[in-house]
Amino acid sequence: MEVIHSIIFIELLLLLMIIMVSVLSALESTIKQQKDTLPAHNELHFGLRFSGLRTNRWEILERVNLYAKSCLSKQQLLAAIRQMHQFLKGQETRFAEGIRSMKSRLTTLQNSVNKAIPDPPTVSCPALEAPPDGRKFGSKYTVDHEVHFACNPGFQLIGPSSRLCQENGSWSGEGPRCQDIRECASHPCQNGGTCVEGVNQYACTCPQGWSGTHCQDQAQTAAPEWSTTDDPAFSRRPRCAKVDQAQHCSCEAGFHMSGPPDNSICQDVNECEVFKQDGASRLCMHSCVNIPGSYRCSCPSGYRTLADGKSCEDIDECAGSQHACARGTICINTGGSFQCVSPECPKTSGNVSYVKTSPYQCERSPCPMDSRPCHHAPKTISFHYLALPSGLKTPVTLFRMATASPPGRPGPDSLRFGIVGGNGRGHFVMQRSDRQTGELILVQSLRGAQVLEVDVDMSEYLDRTFQANHVSKITVFVSPYDF
């Protein structure tokens, strides 16, 4: 048994010594190369020595070879181990001293070089101003620094979103400008109405006979019909009483007197027609139903009537498990309904492949070092779903995109945003809101029901070098109702 232990010990010891000798030899060689390549006029010498290194390493190998030819007892093994501990401790101390000496010499050399070679003159570019109705991000105007631009709400950036200070002291590209977003471009006014542009808003001037925010309601041009039904339930006999030899008659609330004095009848008031209005003062959010002496409000399928009796609230079928989405799909609540979606990662193409890391996100698999197409493919692809009412007033921010660097890793010094796909590109603009955030803005009002898709991209740059880009695929479900 002792023989086996000795053999194992010797093998491990031999391996350890070979590794250590190789490391020390490599260190000696590196020190010699650094010393040989230093400029002579600096008059600096490393002076790093490992005392006894050349002698000791050959001595170690001789001892290992000697041990390997003999059968050691337990006491001899322990004695050999103690000797190795002492040797390693001494070498560790010498090694640390040598490293400290090398660092000190390198610091001295660095200071000498900094004093001998002056820094080149700093090149700067002229100061830039924010475009009218816009903002500027970045206050450094030296070479390789970028300045970013964004427009105020209601305006769209025309031109580059960033400019780079170049080595010749000029800025890249042309100065951008902010153009007023034409809210009337989507023709929101109906029935021949005229759209009038405003600041971040529009107004419809309606022709005679029409009213409402979008001229969608027919105006009342004649005296209202208090009741338009012959149903007996919509009429009552008046309540009459003689006072001072004269007969006085009255009707219940919700009815009005109709007919000749000697044969009057109480006819129902059709509140839905009399008080037909648009906007916040209308009787009902959706539809008004006339009933004898009063009215009631009704909501479309997929909505519930609230306690005030006039407002409608969407029923979240997804939260209440009132949907029929198959297993493996995701339920998305929309205005008055729901949609079943199944986000899928792109199929593998060449060296580019993706794995699903969450129900709403795909991440690119590691790329081969020499595969440029793979490195330029989106690093992440995320899926987002938005439910909007019909006729939403524009402009309005729908989505924000930003970057977050892992702890301990430097983040990008420049981000660029853009719209790269989808069937609704004309309705949206993507612009920067600050240095690290981009916003997707709806600039043209949408009429439902319809489904639009828009793909937005965020590219990361570090020292003007492309690092990665991220794509967000946004699906917008527009309700047929304006609530």
Automatic annotation (TrEMBL):
Residues 180-216 form the EGF-like domain. The lineage of its organism: Eukaryota, Metazoa, Chordata, Craniata, Vertebrata. This is Fibulin 7. It holds the Pfam family cEGF. Disulfide bonds join 151-178, 206-215. Gene3D superfamilies: Complement Module, domain 1, Laminin. Keywords: Calcium, Cell adhesion, Disulfide bond, EGF-like domain, Extracellular matrix, Glycoprotein, Membrane, Repeat, Secreted, Signal, Sushi, Transmembrane, Transmembrane helix. InterPro entries: cEGF, ECM_structural_protein, EGF, EGF-like_Ca-bd_dom, EGF-type_Asp/Asn_hydroxyl_site, EGF_Ca-bd_CS, Fibulin_C, Sushi/SCR/CCP_sf. It is found in: Secreted, Extracellular space, Extracellular matrix. The chain crosses the membrane at residues 6-27. The keyword Ribosomal protein does not apply.
